[in-house]
Amino acid sequence: MDAVGFDSLTSFLDRRGCLRATVRLVEQCRREGRPLSALWLDLDRFRQVNESFGHLGGDAVIAKIAARLGTALAGRAEVSRMAGDEFVFLIPGCDRKHAEEIASDLLRAVAEPIEVGSIRIHPSGSVGVAVLDEQEDPLSFIERADHAMIEAKRLGGGRHVVSGDEQVPGRVGVLLAREELAIESQIHAALDCGGLTLHYQPIIGLDGRIEAAEALMRCHIHGESLPPAKIIPVAEKTGLIVRLGEWSMVTAAQHARRLRDQGFPTKLAVNVSRAQLTAPRFVEALYAAIYYADVAPELLELELTESLFMDISDVVQSNLAAAREAGVALAIDDFGTGYSCLANLKDIPATKLKLDRAFVRVLPEDRRALAVVRAMTQLGRELGMTIVAEGVETQAQHQALVDVGVDAVQGFLHARPMDGEALLGWLRGRQ
Ligand code: C2E
Ligand code: MG
Ligand code: MG
Fold first, then answer.
1. Does the Cβ of 201 fall within 6 Å of ligand 1?
2. Is the CB of 334 under 6 A from ligand 1?
3. In this structure, what CATH number is given to the domain that contains residue 163?
4. What number does the ligand 1 atom closest to the CA of 216 have?
5. Domain ends where: 120, 136, 167?
6. 133 and 209 assigned to the same domain
7. What pTM value is reported for the model?
């Protein structure tokens, strides 16, 4: 790789510089009555390059592309490097038509093949274009370009999208992005200030024994409580789920130990997201949770959603195998709703199948749902699994499930999720 390319990287503005330049150019172009365009470029599938050639190799590729981009624009734009492979171009005097031409030039410049050692790679990029609106503030102007870039990626990359042309219009997209950002900052605050707790919902065997209790995350911050449905998707998108998941495992392991010490060796089931299982450090975190809590691994269970099994990578496979080897049980959560790949089901070392609430809700009237529940129960049974029905709210639903022959039930009819102290009381009450 040539040194010229590397030098080109240092000449760019950083994020802060980009914001300052945006504020300045927005003012200047408004004063002069000229248009202003922002182009946000992100290289497609760059992670692959980093994974194949290491980050230094990746940087060398970026430097080479950056040098080309500089040539393509020939001093017409202020250029910032927002992150590893993301660049923003601010172009004064540039209207939509002109901006689209420049976006095509940039994409052409990116797409020239690059030789790395003996391999020839064919890079591509995605560009989001925003043209400054009359009233808008500099930040949302830049955010619209970013959002349009994400849409270009969603459409498969190697193209540009102009803000406003997306399926979710730029403004709505920006508002959604802001809400996500607010949730992300609340998650950080909750992690730092103890705003997270686990509640536990008992899972009860039809023979009366306590099969397990499911640990469900609760987040209270600044007097507000955020349901998992809000937290988890944002945490997954931002990677925070890895920290949240580790916190859940540690907290549940400690509680399992506490229950055992009180004479209730109850298995606690922790929900695990796909993003956690694809992280190589998952196993270490799991082992650390077990070790520090000094709890038998048999008292922990991991609930995995079915969508995980659409494609099981080697990392996921080895993480699951390591969990099983350690003696931790695995359950398949929300079964029947996702992308059931029955072919994969046989390869997963799970011992429990949790039928989704969607099927239970319509029982017993819905005969077709009943038939599906019966078939899923049969399938699970043949694979040697324990069958749990989720979301049981009425006695009639409970009876239908008894008739079908599931092994255990979980739902508001039997017990709502409760805090750790209340669970202990509940267990004592059943003695
Ligand atoms: P899930 O794992 O399927 O958990 C069961 C959800 O159903 C819980 O919602 C529970 O409160 C609710 N539920 C239980 N019985 C009934 C019932 O009879 N009727 C109704 N209507 N609902 C019932 P919750 O606590 O809001 O959690 C929602 C989802 O968030 C969970 O679904 C799980 O996928 C995810 N989640 C919760 N905690 C965590 C966590 O620590 N980590 C991860 N990755 N995901 C979590
Ligand atoms: Mg669950
Ligand atoms: Mg579930």
1. yes
2. yes
3. 3.30.70.270
4. 38
5. 167
6. no
7. 0.69
